[in-house]
Write a structure and sequence with these properties.
2 copies of one chain form a homodimer. By secondary structure, the first copy, chain A, is α+β, with helices and mostly antiparallel strands. Chain A has 2 domains: 140 residues, PurM-like, N-terminal domain (60s Ribosomal Protein L30, Chain: A, 2-Layer Sandwich); 168 residues, PurM-like C-terminal domain (Phosphoribosyl-aminoimidazole Synthetase, Chain A, domain 2). Chain A has 9 helices and 13 strands. Chain A has a 7-stranded mixed sheet with strand order 8-10-7-11-9-12-13. In chain A, helix 3 packs parallel to helix 4. Chain A is globular. The two termini of chain A are 29 Å apart.
Chain lengths: 333, 333
C-alpha cells in the first residue's frame, strides 16, 4: 500500500478502515487494541498518573528520532517523572493531505518500537485528515501506575542535591541544525527514561522532585521547583555538561543551553544522603552515564521574598536564572 | 487579556504559563488539575474505558455548538457507548498562530460548561502553537468506569431490536450549511449522551451493542455490528426520522442521511423483550425524544456468507446498505 493520503482517509468510512487495518492495527497490535471499539477496556487499580501531549515537531524525521518516537517518549517520560511505571498510551493522528502512506507507516513502526522499548501498549487511537502539505501532528495520552508517591515539584527541601542526568541541548540543537540545513554530527537525545528512573526508585532513592527537561529548559523547571517548594536553588555552571558539538553551535548562534529543550534528560532533586548513590546508579545506564550533582536546594535568604535560582559561573560570579522569556525554538516537540 | 497568539505562547516559557494561568486553569479548575505537574494523579479501580479523538471541525463555531463543545461531547459519548460512566478527560490544544486569546477563551469556557454537563473533570492538558491562520485542533482523551460490561459490537443476536435515538444528519447538515454559506434553521445536535444511556443502564435494559452515529453514519456502524456479531440487519426506511430542514437540504444536495454524521444520536441494539421499555425510557429525555425501533437483527441467510445490512424502502423494495465509500464531509468533527 503506497498511496497519497486524501480527505477520504479521514471520512470514517472505507478508506479510514483500510488505513487503520493496513497501518495502525498492523503495527500496534496487542490484546487490548485488537478488542477496541469506541473505547478500549483497561484493568487498573490504585493511583494512576495521566498526561497528554501534542507533538508538532518539524522536520518529521531528524538524526536520532522522528515525530513518532518523540510522541511516545514525551508522554512516557512525563509519566515516569511522576514516579509512575508507564503502562498504556493512546495515539491520535492529525494528518495533512499529501502525506504518503509509506512515510506514515515508517512513523507508526517507529512508535511501535519505542512503545516496546518503554514497556507500554498503544491501546486506542484516532485518525483525522486536514488540508495541508503532508504534515503530521500526533497527540499521545499516557497512563501509568504510581509507585513513588512522594515525588512532587513542591517537595524540595533545603540541603537536597540537584542531579542532572546528562548533557543539555542535544534535541534542540539537532532540530535547529536540521531546520537550518547545518551539517554536523549532532543527534537528538530522544529516548524513554523508564530504565534509569525505575533503577532509582527500585533502589530506594528518596527522590523529592523530578522533571524531564523539555520546552523551557532547565532554567524554567528549576524556577518551577523553587516556587512550588518555597525554596531557592543554587547550581554551578561548570557541573553542567554540554557536548562539544552542541556547545559549538550555541557559541555560533548565541544560544543558552540552560533554556534549550531535550528529549532524554531529566533533573532529579534527591535527599542529600542518597545523592552519591543516585549518581552511581545513573552512571551505570548508557542513557544517564553523564549524571552529575549540579547544585543544591537552599532556604530563601532572610531578606528575600523570592524563590530564586542562581548559577555560579566558573569565575565565581553569580547569575540569576529566570524562567524562559521569548519564543525558544518553535515546533521543537 | 486579548492578544494574538504567536509561537511564543507555545514555547514552554513565560507566555505559555500566562496562557495556562489566564485561560486554561481559570476555567477548567478542579482539585486534580490544580495539582497537576507533568501528569495528573487519579484514583481508579476496576475496569475502565479509555478513548482518544482529535477534533478538526471547521468552522470553529456553528449553530448549536463549537469545536470545544464537540471535543468534550465526542469523547464523552465514546465512553458512554461502552457502557461506562465518563469521569475524566484530558485536552491537548494545537493552536495556529493568529488566533486571538478571546476566541480561545470562549472555546475553553464552552468546554468547561460541556464537561460540567457531562459530569467529567478536565484533569490534564497541553498547548502547542504552529504556523497558520488562527485555526485550532483539540485532542481529548476520556476515561470512564465501566458499569455495563456486556456491551459490544460483537454481541448482537437474531431477534434483537435496533433503536435509533433521534433524527439523522443534523450535525452534518449544520456544518455543511455553515461552510457553504446557506442560511437555514439547521442546528447541530452536539450534545453529551450520558443521561439517556445511563437511564437505560440503570433501568436494567439488556443493551447488546451501542454506538454514537458520527463519521461514516448509520450505514457504516450497522455494517460493523453485522460483521462483528456474524449477523445480518434489516431496517425500515420509514422509521428513520430526519428533520424537515435537513431533509430539504439532502434533497437539494443529493445527500443520504444514512451516511451523515451526527454528534448527539446513537444506535442501541437491545434484547427484543426490553425494546419497548427502552424506547419509552428514551422518549422521556429531550435528547432522545424521537427514539424509535427502526429494525431488527436477523441471522444470515443459509446461502449467504455475508453479513448484510438491508433497508426496506416505503414501497417495499429492499436496498443493500454498505459501508460508506468516498469522502463523506471532511472536517465534520
Amino acid at each position: 500500500m503506497n498511496e497519497i493520503i486524501t480527505v477520504e482517509h479521514g471520512s470514517g468510512g472505507f478508506k479510514t478502515n483500510e488505513l487503520i487495518n493496513k497501518i495502525f492495527s498492523k503495527h500496534f497490535a496487542n490484546e487490548i487494541l485488537d478488542k477496541m471499539e469506541d473505547a478500549a477496556v483497561l484493568k487498573v487499580a490504585g493511583k494512576i498518573a495521566i498526561t497528554t501531549d501534542s507533538f508538532v515537531v518539524t522536520p518529521l524525521f531528524y538524526p536520532g528520532g522522528d515525530i513518532g518516537r518523540l510522541a511516545v517518549c514525551g508522554t512516557v517520560n512525563d509519566i515516569v517523572m511522576m514516579g509512575a511505571r508507564p503502562q498504556f498510551i493512546t495515539a491520535a493522528f492529525i494528518i495533512e493531505e499529501g502525506m504518503d502512506t509509506d512515510t506514515l507507516e515508517q512513523i507508526v513502526i517507529s512508535m511501535a518500537k519505542t512503545a516496546k522499548e518503554s514497556g507500554v501498549a498503544i491501546v486506542a487511537g484516532d485518525t483525522k485528515v486536514i488540508e495541508g502539505n503532508g504534515g503530521l501532528y500526533i497527540t499521545t495520552t499516557g497512563i501509568g501506575k504510581i509507585i513513588a508517591e512522594q515525588i512532587s515539584a513542591a517537595n524540595c527541601k533545603p540541603g537536597d542535591a540537584v542531579i542532572l542526568s546528562g548533557t543539555l541541548g542535544d534535541h534542540h540543537a539537532c532540530i535547529l541544525s536540521a531546520r537550518m540545513g547545518i551539517a554536523n554530527n549532532i543527534v537528538s537525545d530522544n529516548v524513554p527514561l523508564v530504565e534509569p528512573v525505575m533503577t532509582l526508585i527500585n533502589n530506594g532513592i528518596n527522590i523529592r522532585a523530578m522533571r524531564d527537561i523539555t520546552r523551557g529548559g532547565l532554567g524554567t523547571i528549576l524556577n518551577e521547583f523553587a516556587k512550588s517548594s518555597g525554596v531557592s536553588i543554587c547550581i554551578e555552571e561548570e557541573k553542567i555538561s554540554v557536548s562539544e558539538s552542541v556547545s559549538g553551535l550555541c557559541d555560533i548562534l548565541g544560544l543558552d543551553p540552560i533554556y534549550m529543550g531535550n528529549e532524554g534528560k531529566f533533573i532529579a532533586v534527591v535527599a542529600k544522603e542518597d545523592a552519591e548513590t543516585a549518581v552511581e546508579l545513573l552512571k551505570q545506564n548508557e542513557i544517564s552515564k553523564n549524571a552529575c550533582i549540579i547544585g543544591h536546594i537552599t532556604s530563601r535568604g532572610i531578606d528575600s521574598k523570592d524563590n530564586t535560582v542562581t548559577m555560579i559561573t566558573p569565575n565565581g560570579a553569580s547569575r540569576r536564572i529566570s524562567i524562559m522569556h521569548g519564543e525558544g525554538l518553535p515546533r521543537i516537540c
